[in-house]
Amino acid sequence: MAKKKATEEKRTKHETPEIPALQPGDVVAVNLRIREGDKERTQTFEGTVIRLRGAGENKSFTVRKVSRGYGIERIFPFRSPVITSVQVKRHSKVRRSKLYYLRGRKGRGAQLKERKVEPKARPAAVEE
After folding, report:
1. pLDDT at residue 106, rounded to an integer
2. Distance CA 78, CA 29 (A)
3. Which of 42, 46, 51, 99 is deepest in the core (most CB within 10 A)?
4. Under a CB-based contact definition with an 8 Å cutoff, are residues 27 and 90 in contact?
5. Could you read off the pLDDT of 16-74 as tens digits, one per residue?
6. Among 114, 102, 97, which residue's Cα sits nearest to residue 51?
7. 54-63 own/partner pairs: CB under 8 Å, 24+ apart
8. SS3 string of 13-76?
9. Position 120 pLDDT exceeds 60
10. pLDDT band at 124, cuts 50/70/90?
11. Is 0.85 topped by the overall pTM?
C-alpha cells in the first residue's frame, strides 16, 4: 500500500495545466518551463498541431513549426509538468487526422485555410 500512496503523491506534486480541446490543424502556443542551472524561465513553442495520439495517461500531441527554413517538430505529453499553459491561436480547416503531408511542403503550399469558430456563448448571469 505504501507504493500506491507514493505514486498518488507524485502525481499531485506536479500540477498539470488545463489543456484546451485540440484538433489537428490548430495553431497553438505552448509555454514551457525551462531550467538553466539554478534559474527558471518560460519559453514559447508556437506551431501547428499535426497529430494527436493515445488516450488517457498516454495522450500526446505533436506541434510543428518552421524556424529559419528548418522544420522542427516537438511531441508534448498532455500530463507533462514542463508545460505551463497552452493557448489555441487559430483553427484551420483540415480533412485528415494526421497532417504529415505538411513536412514536404514549403511556403504557401504549407499554409492551411482558417476555420471560423463561434465563441462559446456565456450563460446569462442569475440575479437574485
Report:
1. 84
2. 14
3. 99
4. yes
5. 778 888 899 999 999 999 999 999 999 999 999 999 999 888 899 999 999 998 999 99
6. 97
7. 61/22, 63/28, 63/30
8. HCCCCCCCCCCCCCEEEEEEEEEECCEEEEEEEEEEEEEEECCHHHCEEEEEEEECCEEEEEEE
9. yes
10. low
11. no
Each domain of the chain, given as residue ranges in start order, spans 17-95
The whole-number pLDDT of residue 17 equals 75
Give the containing element (helix H, strand E) for 83. strand 83-90
Rounded-to-integer distance, Cα 41 and Cα 98, Å:
32
Q: How far apart are CA 10 and CA 15, in angstroms?
A: 10
- How far is Cα 47 from Cα 112, in angstroms, rounded to an integer? 12
What is the architecture of the domain spanning 17-95?
Roll (2.30)
Cell match 505538411: residue? 102
